[in-house]
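Please complete every field before forwarding. Incomplete forms are returned to the sender.

SECTION A: IDENTIFIERS
Entry label: holo-385
Bound molecule: zinc ion
Molecule representation: SMILES string

SECTION B: INPUTS
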Amino acid sequence: MKYCTHCLMPDTKPHLSFDDSGVCQACRAHQLKNDYLGGIDWDARENEFNALLDQAKSVGGPSYDVLVPVSGGKDSIAQVHRVLGRGLRILAVHVDYGVKTEIGRRNLERVPDMGADLLVYRPSQPLHKRLIRIGLEDFGDPDLLSHTLLHAYPQHVALQYEIPLVLLGENAAVEYSGETDTAAGNTMTRAWFDRYAANQGRDARFISERYDIPFETLRYYDFPDRIAQSSTQAVFLSYYFHWDSATHLEIARKYGFESLDGPAEGTYRNYVGLDEKIHRIHQYLKVLKFGYGRATDHACEDIRNGRLTREQAKLLVKEHDLEDVSDYFLDDVARYIDMTKEELLTVLEQYRNQDIWQRDPTGRWTIPGHLQDGVAAEIATAGAR
Ligand SMILES: [Zn+2]
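SECTION C: PREDICTED COMPLEX
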């Protein structure tokens, strides 16, 4: 494995390219994003935001003025916070797509406490569990269609309730690709959905055809194209306010948002991935397939934002990134999709990439050259000789 010379992202990450000085495209994108964000007049953007809310209020739907999709995480609580205190009728929509934790339930309860109506959607379980197993067993991603459901379902609700405004969170087009052009549009479109919500064409249409599941039963897993012709507009909050985890955590805590006492499994942060258990399996599969996990993602973000040096980050990644998934997650997820823990582990092991992982003399799986700069390149050269 070769690592970015600026952050710690390995070259095993799909679709990630490196320039001649060994800096990854994500770091370059971050620079572009910062240049772009640095040039933004945030006061003007806030005025635009206020005008947007005034307009939503004056247009008004029959029941609600604004819809906010919520996970119950700190960012979604901050999203609700931004529309409070203006006399708007707020509908918060939560897609309950997996195995909720107790802390996740408590954090979600903060949303109606804040003054929004909360709609919780739980998809039909026989169908949804089948989709999770298809994603897990055939594509190594249990959240394959849960991810499209999360993005699509609130849009369907907005159409049904004729809500003029949907307030989304962060625009992944800017955050991960530095695509400021796509961001300038600032609305969630079919093109955005296909690129950032659906996993390389493995979407509801694809699954419907391949597994002979009537598409009509998967309609909420797909983007509602008629939104383009409707009076509903879905915009990203990150266009109007500088999107910052620390600010959101501070806002969320004021409303009683709880974090963990210690770091979450697989990373060093204590306020991420708290609310649901299947997501941990999704993250662990990344570790098996590509040799890096959640701690690397967080460390790279912290390096790029100047919160950690590369050396500090390395220590944290070493400590947390390759952590085995624990029974706390395995037991409940296995039970949820009607497998034994052993069956689930067997499926997971099938995705371990043995070009990356090797057993050491004691039989333990390790990654040779893990986090060592240049070492993997030398091994590769030696092998080629
Ligand atoms: Zn990088």
